[in-house]
Amino acid sequence: MTTSAVTERPRVLLLFGGRSSEHPVSCVTAANVLREIDTERWEPVPVGVARSGLWSVEDMDPTQWSLRDGSLPEVPEPIRPVSLRAASDGTTELVDADGACLGRVDVVFPLLHGPFGEDGTVQGLFETLNLPAVGCGVLASAVGMDKHFMKVAFQAAGLEVGPWETITDRDWQRDADSALERAGSLEYPLFVKPARAGSSFGITRVAEPAELRAAVEEARRFDPRVVVEAGILGREIECAVLDGHGTDVPRASLPGEIVVVEQTGDHQFYDFEAKYQDDDAAQLSCPAEMPEEEISRLQELAVRAFEAIDGAGLARCDFFYTPDGRWVINEINTMPGFTPISMYPALWERSGIPYSQLITELVELALERGAGLH
Question: What is the C-alpha separation between 236 and 228, in angstroms, rounded?
Answer without folding.
Answer: 18
